[in-house]
Design a protein that fits this description.
Blueprint lengths: L17 E7 L8 H9 L10 E3 L2 E3 L1 E6 L41 H6 L10 H14 L5 E6 L5 H13 L4 E6 L7 H6 L28 H16 L6 H8 L5 H37 L2
Parallel strand pairs: 5-6
Antiparallel strand pairs: 1-4, 2-3
Helix pairs in contact: 4-6, 6-8
Length: about 290
Amino acid sequence: MLPETDDRRWSRKLHGYGTQFYVLGPVPNDVDAAKLDAELAKLKRVDPSTPVKVSGKSLTWRAYDFSWRYGKEGDLGHQGYHGLKRTVTDDFICLGRTTGGLNETLDDVTAKQWRKGYVGNGSLEARLREDTRILHDNAFWIHAMFIMGPQHTEETADRIVSFARGCEIETLQVGILTPLPGTSLFDEMRPHLIFDDFPGDWDYYDGVHCVYNTSRLGVAGLQKAVLNAHRRFYRWGWNPRALRSIAARPTSFVDKLLDLWSGVRTSKTMLRRWGREMETFVELAETKSQR
């Protein structure tokens, strides 16, 4: 038997899952980041059995296993209260806390309320800007997902769009905090639900409909704020970074123009459809609220 086909020492893995890279840490807050970077720069390759020593501490490596299609095994997606992720495609990296979800907000107060954010110093927005820069420097295409809840206003939506455009994030999705059954949020908001005719009303529990009456903006206002955020971000169909990416493609000038036009047309069509659906939903919400 050839050494590369001898599976007697292979670890057992679920099909499609496996070690993709190694993670160092956790790194204590008192470790000198510059010294750690210097130690890592000396490495020609990662030996997971050899710790990295810095500031009198010994930091160990651990394998990071996942499937490029389904994510972390047994982890449905760091999405906190509002829902579950089913299938993911393309390359991804989960940022933020290892438990309690990702960020989905720029506001530190909201992050604390939703038990999200980072461990460590620095504002959430500043650290997200730095993460975005690092990912772009390493050629990652970023899809940003944010959530607006009942405490948020039009200024929240404006801040999200300004952040996304300022960081030249490629694609943006702004959702609405949605209480799902079996969560503490659902129990908390049960008295305030407008859409409570189950199972028929479950269709509206999808992360883009306001199903409660406690929003500072009201149902119509919150729906409009989320829709307008997408309209502003996708005003031209593409952001500058995406435009530069299309311009660099090894295709003809005509093909590049067709790609640009296709993006603009798709975004405009989808937003018009969403606007019409939103108007119908708001009318239904007003009718239900009057019961």
